[in-house]
Amino acid sequence: MNEQYYLPLAYLNAWEYCPRRFYLEYQLGENAENEHIILGRHLHRNVDSEGKHTVDDTVTYRHQWVWSELYLIHGINDFRLRY
Fold first, then answer.
1. Model pLDDT for residues 2-57, shown as the tens digit of each residue
2. What is the pTM of this model?
3. What is the C-alpha separation between 33 and 25, in angstroms, rounded?
């Protein structure tokens, strides 16, 4: 299937956070920045680098590309695995 039909994971996160905000941002294009968005971008600037970090029995993968052909979603995600 063509990737243009896939829903970005960020959309799911935005919807879960606030359906009204999702509608304003993604349907109406009102992406106003505020102090919270700017602070979050600053705090996450180092998280956006791809990598793998292991502590004891837990492995954390950062900035990993994931997708589902079944659900037609794709995006960048961080996740942890315990062994």
1. 767 898 888 888 889 889 988 988 888 777 778 887 888 888 776 667 788 899 99
2. 0.59
3. 11
